[in-house]
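Thread: Newbie trying to understand structure tokens

Hi all, I'm a second-year student working on a class project, and my supervisor (Dr. K.) asked me to get a predicted structure for one chain before our next meeting. I've only ever worked with sequences, so writing a 3D structure as a token string is new to me. If someone could post the tokens and maybe explain what I'm looking at, I'd be very grateful. Here's the chain:
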Amino acid sequence: MEKVFLDEKDTTKNCYTLLYPPKLPYAGYLFLIPGFGETAEDVLQQTDLPNKLALHGILTIIPTFQDGVLSFGVDSSSQQTFDRILKDVTAKHQLIDKKFYVGGFSIGGSCAIKYAENAAIKPTAVFAVDPPLDFERFYNSAKRDIRLSNDNEANPENRYMIDRLEKETGGNPATHLAAYYSISPYSFSDTTQTEIKKLSNIPLRIYTIPDINWWLTERGADFTSMNATECSAMINELNRLGNQNAVLLTTQNKGYRKPDNRRHPHSWSIVDNDELVQWLLKQK
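---
Reply by user tm_fold:
Sure, no problem. This is what the structure looks like when written as tokens:
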């Protein structure tokens, strides 16, 4: 394992962690993008996917973008930093002709899909673990949660995300809808399907657990505020556009966060890593 900084004077952002396979040549390389607030070390605690990839010859790169662990992933600055890190890695490790995979958890999954939509060199395959995809929906759901909550009960993450989305887009969906369409990997209300049409030929997997009873009981949330809703909608539209290699994978009774193994369906652990590695290796 190695950590590389694009700017040696700043160790908090614009860097990446490499997990090397035990021998050369590499079978490919994979950018594994953390969820919001996660460090590379957090990712390695929550999932053994990088170790399993290494055993099959795949180099794993875990990036940290320009805003450190608070990088938003789908914004233009994060996407540009993704490009910088990609160019740095490929130049140093002779990866130009190797298979190139992108995946991530939560907003890291959103970042992976958004990158695949706009990348000049398309990834061989993409996967995302319970990503928020439609930020118009996300904004409105967060606003609704605050409205339904007593002042001291509203989820502070929703307050933060509303402010962050307004900062990234310049306003709210009512006044800046085009900006929400641009930043979102998928938008339910965008009848032109502008963003997802760019994925019509890319193998894509989205993992989610639509565990409605957990969300109702533990978070006071319902289907309208769950990522599973738009994950299924996006896959449905991609299938209808002709991409039969776009698949929604739902599981049950999974989702535990380390180190205390507490139940949470929005977790890295909903993925069958062995099966995912085999799927990645089959893609051409």
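A couple of things are worth pointing out once you decode it. The chain has a mean pLDDT of 95. Residues 76-93 form the longest helix (18 residues). Feel free to ask follow-ups in this thread.
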